[in-house]
Write a structure and sequence with these properties.
By secondary structure, the chain is mainly alpha-helical. It has helices at residues 2-29, 40-69, 72-95, 101-128.
Length: 129
């Protein structure tokens, strides 16, 4: 289970890193708070950060769910793939949003597997008694 919590912590650190990148983009592109739009490049950083939050809210509970009912090693591995996918998503979205697909797939798919696998196994365990 330690690996699961390490991966979870790394995913949270990644999210904080993306937040710092948004703050840096605010300064570089002259978008003062509380504005959430402005310069196109700022908007890209901001969208990556918010899109990451949308997946992170599912990833964090799905990791221990999958780890408990299926495998902590597989949960950690899938979480690591998510982290790599999110970095790929970050760099590709900022460079050209139309090329964000591979990074999105490498981060969405592990989250879907973690959630559906963990939930499915929990349901099976409930009915097996």
């Amino acid at each position: 289970m330690n690996l699961v919590y390490i991966v979870m912590g790394l995913a949270l650190l990644q999210y904080l890193y993306f937040g710092f990148a948004v703050g840096g983009a605010r300064g570089r592109y002259g978008v003062s708070a509380p504005a959430t739009t402005g310069h196109e490049m700022f908007d890209r950083y901001f969208r990556v950060h918010m899109n990451t939050l949308e997946l992170l809210v599912v990833l964090v509970p799905a990791l221990p769910l999958f780890a408990y009912y299926i495998s902590s090693r597989w949960a950690a591995a899938l979480g690591a793939i998510y982290i790599v996918g999110r970095f790929l998503y970050f760099f590709s979205y900022v460079k050209d949003p139309k090329k964000r697909g591979p990074g999105y797939g490498l981060s969405f798919l592990p989250v879907a597997i973690l959630l559906l696998g963990g939930l499915g196994a929990a349901i099976v365990a409930q009915f097996r008694g």
